[in-house]
Amino acid sequence: MAAKLVVSHVWKRLGELQVLEDITLEVSEGEFVAIVGPSGCGKTTFVRLVHGLIPADQGEVRVNGKVIDRPGAQRGFVFQADSLLPWRNVWSNAFVGLEVNGWTTESHRESVSSLLKLVGLQGFERYYPRQLSGGMRQRVNLARALAVDPELLLMDEPFAALDAQTREIMQAELLRIWNSKRKTVLFVTHQIEEAVYLADRIIVLRHRPGRIKETISVDLPRPRSLEVKRTPQFTSHVDRIWKLIEEEVRDHSREEKQF
């Protein structure tokens, strides 16, 4: 399968802090890849770099063979905070990315209405963000990112602010939408169970500076229901990843005690 995203020997420093060190990976067309690791390992920095929000100090990022040096419509971004515009209703919030790019034809408008139906918001088009639950707001956020029909969907802990029950529902909804659209996804999360449930592969980063510690293939069959979380195979994946991250946290703690 062809590589949609190619990251080659990327390094990034923020001030005096070396955040990322020699990151190299490929993500195939239609693949769902999750990134996990200890707090402070550079997960968010990495996904923002892939989007083009910040530049790499060394190395390069390519999407469809094109070097990324700035944000663009070919990469949709779903942030942890939904950042909806409070003066716009659900429909116009989902439409804003198309509007910014000058894509305002009738077919574009129809696509927004179709996406709102896909994410479960049909009938809420005229509601405003203040009238929505957290899960509903993130559904709008996802529809907005998908509206520009991105080549690559980047998601930075999009469900972190939700309660546990809503988070599980949104995970299942995301897989339903992904199965429909089959977008290439790079998904950052702190929650190991979420990564295993959603992803085809999981990239485990080392403690700062972020480097790839291990890449794990998730061989759980698709489509996946929430019941898969109660299987021994699922638990085995979760335990393996927790041990990898625990190693990093312990090693880092020992290093700090030496100073």
Question: What's the SSE blueprint?
Answer:
Elements: E1 3-14, E2 17-28, E3 32-36, H1 43-51, E4 58-63, E5 66-67, E6 75-78, H2 90-100, H3 106-118, H4 134-147, E7 152-156, H5 164-181, E8 184-188, H6 192-198, E9 201-205, E10 212-217, H7 232-257
Parallel strand pairs: 3-8, 3-9, 6-7, 7-8
Antiparallel strand pairs: 1-2, 1-4, 4-5, 9-10
Helix pairs in contact: 2-3, 2-4, 3-4, 6-7
What does this structure look like?
The protein has 259 residues and is of the alpha/beta class. It folds into two domains: 3-74 and 151-257, Rossmann fold (3-Layer(aba) Sandwich), CATH 3.40.50; 84-149, no CATH class. It is 38% helix and 24% strand. The protein has seven helices and ten strands. The strands form two sheets. The chain has a six-stranded mixed β-sheet, sandwiched between helices. The protein has a four-stranded antiparallel β-sheet with strand order 2-1-4-5, covered by helices on one side. β7, α5 and β8 form a beta-alpha-beta unit. α6 (192-198) crosses α7.
The gist of it:
This protein is of the alpha/beta class and 259 residues long. The protein contains seven helices and ten strands.
Task: Throw out a few tags for this protein.
Rossmann fold, 2 domains, 10 strands, 4-stranded antiparallel beta sheet, alpha/beta, globular, 259 residues
